[in-house]
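Title: Prediction job returns without error message
Component: structure pipeline
Severity: low
Priority: P3
Assignee: unassigned

Description:
Job completed but the reporter wants confirmation the result is attached to the right record. Sequence as submitted:
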Amino acid sequence: MKSAKTRNPQRGPKGAGKANHRDDSRSKAHARPAKDAAPAKSRREAPAERAQGPSSTPVPVRTEVRKGARPAERAPVILETQGEAGYRLLDSGDGEKLERYGDVIIVRPEAQALWPRLLPPERWAEADAIFTGDTDEEGMGRWRFPKQALGETWPMQLMDVDFLARYTSFRHVGVFPEQIVHWTWMREQIKARGGKPKVLNLFGYTGVASLIAAEAGAEVTHVDASKKAIGWAKENQTLARLTDRPIRWILDDAMKFIEREQRRGNRYDIILTDPPKFGRGPNGEVWQLFDHLPRMLGLCRELLSDKPIGLVLTAYSIRASFYSMHELMMETMRGMGGLVESGELIIREHPTTEGQAARALSTSLFSRWTRP
């Protein structure tokens, strides 16, 4: 399902230092079942109802200079998934990708697929849904269903957890398979720790990571500022038959929530944070990744328990090298010991014909601090 590869730090991964591309912006609204799915508000790019950053806390001119030794480090690291039974990247090329989500085959734009397609046109013509329209990261588009009109949702399963996928106007379907590598690591750590480790999932969206953590035995706090995303996540909890598991669904601004948690003295063993590059909340809150990320990571450090397992940061569609995130994490975690690994998440194609190359798509940057 996954593997971790370390490349020569003197060379770095192909494309390091360049803008890392994200194929879509996460949507907060649900599409409609019709010939085309209706536009929905973006979770990641500029929703009026998305609260991501502080409205009254000023951004400090300087970030805190921490004392103590820096953690051990490993970079660049490439974390790779080939998907699993519920998801496969079937082919890519000519600016698009062909994927299977559950039983549904989808074609979506993919700017990084600069190479030619390998599968014949008739295989691409098998698609059940094709994303069309505005393909800009911040724009809206529509879905075309060439065979028959499809409903807005369909059931999926990843890592033995059931949930609903949905068509949204920002290309995605509510799950990001490249995160399987982080979810697998998290599940293994929860089971190894035993008891009920506490997991905080910031910008948790549709809750797949939260459900995987809960299924593994964790006590989960899931935070998202979208009422629709929280509703979707609760639907997924019911579908996954995990309504008896301890999950707190928190509808709140992420920064405001962790500021309050720090004052309350609440602590967590694992923190997942998957922030957008920009967001705007219902009360005028503004999140800017480069402005607010240092403070957010600093607060996350303060929320770690006395025996922490890890802090995971993922970033999409930003004009930065993963080394920027790596050095920020290294400085944030001074004096904490442990290991910081940083690099890229990639999805490997799953060949379906003899001789088909298993090419890889880079999806995002990550930095992960862990302590044995």
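Comment from assignee: result matches the submitted record. The chain has one domain: 2-370.
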